[in-house]
Amino acid sequence: MRVCAGIALRLILLSSLFWPGNVLAQESLAAPSSTQERTAEVESPPAPVLRPTVSILSATPNKGGGFRVEVEVASPSGAPVRLKPLLNGQAIADFAVAQSRGLTRANRYTLTFPLPAKDGMFQLLAEAGNNISEPASLRLRSGAIEQRPALYVLAVGVSSYKDKDIPQLRYPGKDARDLAATLQRQRGTLYRETTVRVLADEMATRAQVMEGLDWLGKTVTKDDTAVVFLAGHGTNDIDSRYYYLPYDASAGNDSMLSGQEILTALRTIAGKVVLMLDTCHSGNVLGRRSLSRLINELTTENRIVVFAASTGDQTARESAAWQNGAFTKALVEGLRGVADYAEDGRISMSELETWAGVRVRQLTADAQTPTLAKPNAAPDYVIAALPLTGVLPSPKQAVRRRSVATASGVLGAVILIAAVVAAVVVNQQNINAATLSFR
Question: What is residue 419's three-state secondary structure?
């Protein structure tokens, strides 16, 4: 059984929240000893770097070959802009550019250029004076613009904690690796590429987890999908606010990750976001009292879905029989094909929710119930597609196969019986004929 950090940890957490005195605050009130010291502490802020920005608005193939790309470029410094297209890091020499529209703060340009019929990465840079923009990118596949999104996965699992007073678990590290391996197989199916980052046990420090969330915020585009998976201990404070315990968690809540911190980080991710939690009290990741308010805030974004192993007052289970948490086992099975109820080769969030609900209750004898929280306006989007190999059949398919096998068996028996009866009849006719011939 996956047991939370316990009452002792909660009491320590609560005591740290109300610890009397604040040395840092007292020190901050101390006046500097001299005017010179006060002056020395004041530094002029560095001059901002006025880098141009470039974004790709559209990309369409030309009838005669090649591509036409419309871009928007802003030059905060006011310096003239020079566009530099690249293919696989090499400058494209043969291209044409025309300014299609001038705006107050930015200009739009149309570029046309040929491309070889191969896979690669097209990038566009904007140079203004000595400053250069971050690249805007398009992935190419066989000379055509790749339309599929990318999948980014941050999988975190802590079984053994630095603080030995925190009860050790058995499978969260394996949970993170197993889910990451399952999602890694999505490359080339629904997604053009899959990038996975796994933080297990001592690698899953608070700093590393926050850096991983920051990586997603900087990398995921509006067309991509991000999956954040957290397994291990979770706990609540007196106000039912959720905290995830990283490897280096201690008594102070500042060493943990609060549900609010996690959601704040998720809001910086531009694409679709799925947060999966296989922890104790994971149903309270949004906070019992703040669940409705936060979901209402997320409704305008229609991007973030929280899929938790249990309701707020339940314990998440793990077992040597499964060598996983019950929730993770259900997720892996579902993503590998068991949740394909529509039998269309794709797994939607609603299908995954249905399978996880059935499977987790089955594994835990109804002691644990997964929960899905999402904005009311969030669409039921597809999270995975089935690969060519290693697919597990859905229960619906299994039932149909058994029915077909049973029907085939019954039909075979009927045919066999009919054949035996026919043989007996024919044999009897032959006997009768023989008898008649001797009369």
Answer: helix
